[in-house]
Amino acid sequence: MEFELTEEHRMAQQMVRDFAQKEIYPTIKEWDHKHQPHPDVLPRMAELGILGINVPVRYGGQGFDYITLALVCEELERVDASLRVIMSVHAGLNSLALLQWGTEEQKQRFLVPQATGEKYAGYALTEPDAGSDPVRLRATARREGDVYVLNGEKMWISLATLADHMLVFAKTDPNAKPEYKGITAFMITRDMKGVTVGDIKGKMGVRAGSTGWIAMQDVEVPVENRIGEEGEGFYIAMSCLDNGRYTVGAGAVGCIRACLEDSVKYAKERYTFNVPIAQHQLIKQKIAYMQQWYDAARLLILKAGWLKNQGKRNTRETALAKWFATDMSVKAALEAIQLHGAYGFSDEYDVERYLRNAKGATIYEGSSEIQQLIQADYALGYRQDRPLRCELPGYDPEWWQSEN
Amino acid sequence: MHVAVITNCTPDTAADVAVDAGGNLKVDDKLVVNPWDEYAITEAILLKEAHNAQVSILTLGGPEHEEALKHGLAIGCDQAIRIWDDALQGWDSLAFAKAVAAAIGKLGDVDLVLFGKELPDIASDAHIFQTARKLGWTPLGFVAKIEALDPAAGTIRVKRQVESGTETVTSRLPAVISVLKDINEPKYPTFIGIRKAAKASMPVWSLADLGLDAAAVAPKAKRLAYQDLPKREGAVEMIDDPALLVDKLLEEKVI
Description:
Chain A is an alpha+beta fold and 404 residues long. Chain A is 51% helix and 14% strand.
């Protein structure tokens, strides 16, 4: 068993930390207040290669492993969840889906420009009336010759107004039994006729993130934009979540670290009863819990990353890591606010932003309740992993780093 | 064209620094690449891009300074060399200059040596100008911009920041430059560079490799012990009456 990060891991982590801390942190509060994405984030992440960090070099990426993806997400959310959300949808939910399920032609057409950052990508499964129960989705895709005609509405979609490529799910067979076998995946582009998008305002957190809706009215999608086979969409959607949840959990680890680091700093600076509050036992208890949550959540995430590197299924481990890390990030943020006292209740400090950001992650990409059901069903034997037609490739450094 | 950039690791400026009972310096954090050197490394890479230059990065110090070399490789330097020998333990600026100048000489075809403005842990730039002296090259300190460089003609024009403002200076190459923060926006390592740096082997050049002996680099002065600065003492007095406040400030010669 090896717990050490490699030299490459540490240097990539430091590079992303420097970027996020130097370029984004100084003004992130302003963008959060404005409910607008920081305009430099996406272009800079593209330019620096972060968007394609763990896509093989032959597909335009940087050829790093799945552990690096988690380290990157931790560093990004250490500054703000809106940065990590980009990685969740662009890299975790979309690019890795192409790597797993796309044909070689689709990889060249969609994955390469996404990995280089030339195109931004998102993932649209959720609908106004279908979240935790995606089988109930209402979007439809009707085959007409060489195209599918898509109709429907998607909701709570990250990068809805910014993404060029969107992986959408729609029913090609509304009468399929079982129902989930009627769902098919498609890559649509924002410039397709009949696609309209908009932003959602009034979010509690991730206010510097882009979240919106997509309406599809008679959108003609070429057959060659279908990802996977007809009726395979549910398997694809769920496999995407194995990667999206991984990034969300890794980001939550960064949020816990933010709470811990900010709390340690404040506890040494703030005096009560003539001593720094760090010397009070009840403050120490909060710090200790935050450290415990950070270490445990990080280990769970890195274990899931190790499984991915090995090419092993990790649905249960990823779901567990996401559940634990996101729930603990909310607790850490609450404790950080308590420790900061009245200042923590004010937006003068960052900890209230951490709480508002953390809460969303216990809801999106599978709520904490869904993750609990997954764990229980595995333990009870109600749920078992079955082989997929296309498995996510494990990390083979030679293959991932070679040009062709 | 061949550019050499000299770098070192230094304690983070935000690190807590203390002196123990034995007079030894204790720094609570890991070392970082000298922030001034970030500009020098970036400038070297910009010259590489503009003039197809070869860039060598060198450090003088123990293995803990390899981080600075790897950082340079990850940004785009072509080769990294660490200069070290037990006889350099406790080096002073002249010893540093002699060893670095010898290493530059060993590289052979260097046209330009870049340094960050100073070593912040010892708040000194003497080693930069001593290196230039040992090489017999033009020292160009406090450079805020390289305005023109013509490798074929062997000339360089730079803007220097001086106390009275700025001055533009031309010189023949080879030269030794120290750079200021205005010169560029430091680059981040690239991911491809990181992979290269992680796998790179970095030769260590000893004094023997440089044709020097221990006596040549023996420090003229020996650092015996560090001492903590005396703690600052003060008291706060709240004065509500503005008139009294002004009187007090006048009395204390604050205004």
